[in-house]
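Re-running Antitoxin to confirm reproducibility after the cluster update. Everything else is unchanged from the original entry.
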Amino acid sequence: MLKTRMKRLATQTELDLRRLAAIEAAVAALDDEDLLDFADIFAGGDPTPLRAMAEEQMRKRGIRL
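Result of re-run:
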């Protein structure tokens, strides 16, 4: 049973990593104007992973809100 659980967990982890990579790719593929809109949504409040992704892309592109 432990092997089955570990295999299921490994499969779920792989799916989660693929999903995260797809999200990061989608944020990176946004046009500058769309990226600024996206970043503006997450600008207020506590830091989030999506906010960090948007800020990283903005730094790479040299744009600011």
